[in-house]
Amino acid sequence: MTNPGPESGAPGDNTTLVEVLKDYEDAGWTTEFEVLEDGSLRCGTCQTVTAPSAVEVHSLRRLEGASDPADMLAVLAVRCPRCGGRGVVVVNFGPEMTEGQVRLLHEAEDRRFDGETPPASAPGES
Q: What values do phi and psi take at 18, rounded to 5?
């Protein structure tokens, strides 16, 4: 997934994962998704498995651990192509990424600048 704009999704604060997930949930991103070993996503609502190349990422919010900058995560806002469920999936970002997570990020379609949600922050973040 390449970044078509100037916003990188890199964190500029010590916002917690819990806060970010709550912001997405409050904005209606409530469906649970699971990253499978091959990079596919399973929708928690309808159980559809979507190939990584068919996944649309509408937002990517990176986080680093307050006590350990190497503790990197990314929260991806995605939508199920079958049932339309909107939700997030949390993946490692950096050296701790699994092969499936790498494949998902490389092959997913970058829709962060479609205006549906902020491209590099959770809804409601300033």
A: -60, -40
Sign of dihedral through CA atoms 67, 120, 37, 22? positive
Give pLDDT tens digits for 109-122. 999 999 999 999 99
Amino acid 11: pLDDT:
45
Distance CA 117, CA 123 (A): 6
CA dihedral 24, 84, 4, 1 (to 10 degrees): 90
Mean pLDDT of the region 65-80:
81
Where are the domains positioned within the chain? 17-110
- Please state the pTM of the whole predicted model: 0.84
CB atoms within 10 A of CB 60: 25
